[in-house]
Amino acid sequence: MNQNPSDPTNPDAPWEEAMSRDFDARVRDLHEAPIDFTSVKGKAHKIRRNRRAAVAGGILGVAAIFTPIAVLTNGGGTSGKEPGFAPEVSETDPAPDAGPDYLVDRVWHQADGDTVELDQAYDSAVLWDGQLVATRFGGEVYSTADVIDADGDVVRSFSTTGSVVVNDAGTTIAWVDSDGAVMTAWDDEERSLGEVDLAAPGEASAWTAAAVTGGPDCNEEADGCIVYVNSNLGEESRSYSSQGVSDIVASGVTKVHDADSMGAVTVINDVTEFLDTCGGIYEVPNAEYRWETCDYQVHGSSPDGRYVVGLPSQFDGLGPREITILDAETGDPTAGRYAPEGRDAFIRAEVAWTDEGTLAFAAYDGARWHLMEMEPDGSITELATADGSDVDSPFVLIGH
């Protein structure tokens, strides 16, 4: 392996700022980590000092009082970074168009190997018609999304309750703005498909966008769009269409992870008495489940719709200990499975599919972070490594 050490971070950035960014990302995303009966289980979410807290490694019932409380289940230590620490990133030389797009602090690493310097670090990002739409924490509750061109210049900014989502074609984005409007945008146009009530206790963000399908044009008479939103207060997930229809996704569904252009939605719909998170693929046009499982948490689907991500149905600490690619038609595991070695090893739950149909994810081995790429046949490639503590992953995967 040829290694090309680089130093993509700002050495003047305080250690606390970098850690706070990651704390905020873990509380708010993937896509958003709500304080509800199903979604807080199995994740150790970190907290900014003045942010809402989330529960890790257990269940907080829907009927519970939603008072912010911070819990860290594994007592996770840090790597002892000093102020001014900048992770040293070593990268392989993947084939053009074979790797994922990702951020390392203030650098946008593109799939073709090019890099673009950014003015600041971000918590999450998607690609939209060749532009980067990156979200950063912007206040006590809401975030700011920046639309960034190919030169790294911010061409537009707007407020959002959480991460921005993008459709399969990369032509349409959606978000919930700070006034509660469920927004869509394409080309030089935008449209609200409805409104949600953002009233919430403490500093919680009541609703966040989970997925958008259809487009590119979300006008009623044109292509049509559906935006799926998740409640952070235990309510059932909802969908908003450009035809003016708003309803729950399905009875009992409290979290949508992803949706494809055919209306297949990966969801969470139950938690067993043994604290296993259950869900599956719900087919919206047929109003029925393709399959359900309590063996895995079912997350994002591949670009061709053939596969979905399977994480353990329950996990403690900072993240799952393994990740599996599932057959989207049957729910059966493929040969694609990865479990990092080491007592303190885990995988960040925030993963992303590449345009080539490989799964990208970041894994921590107890000492360093590794950016990995896995194919459904089980082939695994390490794309980059970086220093960082267990609560401070340097990699932000960019959704397509």
TrEMBL record:
Transmembrane segments: 53-72
Top-level taxon: Bacteria
Record keywords, A-Z: Membrane, Transmembrane, Transmembrane helix
UniProt name for this protein: WD40 repeat domain-containing protein
Source organism per UniProt: Nocardioides antri
